[in-house]
Amino acid sequence: MPEAGTAHARTAPTQEHRTPAENPFDSVETMVADADVFTEFVEDAVAQYRLGLASVAAGGSRLHRPNSFGLLGGTLEDDALVVRRVAFAANVRAVDQVPLEEFERNIVPRFGKQYDDGERGFWCDSRQLLKVVREFEDDGLDMLGSVHMHPDWHRVGPPHERGTENLSENPSRMDEYLFRNAGWPLNVICYLESRGGGVTHTFAAWRPPRTEEAPTAKLAIRFFARGHEGTA
After folding, report:
1. Are 11 and 129 spatial neighbours (Cβ–Cβ below 8 Å)?
2. Residue 14 gets which letter from DSSP?
3. Which of 10, 61, 65, 204 is the most exposed, having the fewest neighbouring CB atoms within 10 Å of its CB?
4. 191, containing H or E segment
């Protein structure tokens, strides 16, 4: 089952170096965003999804694995992470030595041989990550985390992968592993599926598990009423 949107970047926010008692993100319960902040990401994810569907319909062994990934810039306000911007980044999963070694040594043995496929998963280019972090900081924003897509590949993917582990807006075991390693306080999954003759999407937001044994915590999602941001 291709966890096609799984994302990872080796750099974590500065807050991860605080002790648990000092970590301001421990009180976070909600993600807040403007209704349009994810629009460009969703458009990219849908385009990726349709490429995947087209490759399945065309037959043959060469399938397009849908992948879309964005970095989230925003602010911490009371118990909410407010997402102000989404920035795209390049995927170096199949070409950079660091992810190649990570998948070979840790991910493939832990999560399965299917992760030998270089098109499965997303690994953010570290140089681009640093550039985006600096751009966020210049605009008074913190690096909050990432958003990545999950397609309903268990239903519309290649026949031999249908009916296996179902993807959704919930994190996979591999997602939880990568969320923990990245250390970012916000991890958003956008789930796409074919319904009603079109492509639908939904979001879920997650805080990484604090320990190896702890579960990933789900955050509530709230969108500003259109035209009413900052008017409370």
Report:
1. yes
2. G
3. 61
4. strand 186-195
Q: List pLDDT tens digits, range 121-159.
A: 788 888 999 999 999 999 999 999 999 999 998 888 888
Chain centroid offset of residue 80 CA: 19
- In the chain, what is the straight-line distance between the N-terminal and C-terminal CA atoms, in Å? 45
**Nearest-angstrom CA–CA distance, 187 and 69:** 11
With beta carbons less than 8 A apart as the criterion, state whether 100 and 51 touch. no
The sign of the dihedral angle between the CA atoms of 199, 87, 221, 163 is positive
Portion of the chain with pLDDT greater than 90, in percent: 51
The DSSP bridge pattern shows strands 80-88 and 69-77 to be: antiparallel
DSSP-based three-state secondary structure for 230: coil
- The backbone region for 48, taken as left when phi is positive above 0, alpha when psi lies in -120 to 50, beta otherwise, is alpha
Instruction: For residues 201 and 118, give the distance between their C-alpha atoms in angstroms, rounded to a whole number.
Output: 25
30-33 and 217-223 strand pairing:
parallel
Which residue has 């000092």 as its token pair?
A: 22
Whole-Å CA distances, 185 to 14, 33, 48, 104: 11, 15, 26, 27
Closest CA to 172 of 81, 110, 125: 110
Distance CA 196, CA 170 (A): 22
pLDDT given at position 6: 47
Count the helix, strand and coil residues of the chain and give each as a percent rounded to the nearest 5: 35, 30, 40
For residues 9 and 123, the answer to whether their CB atoms sit within 8 Å is: yes
Contact 82, 25 (CB under 8 A): no
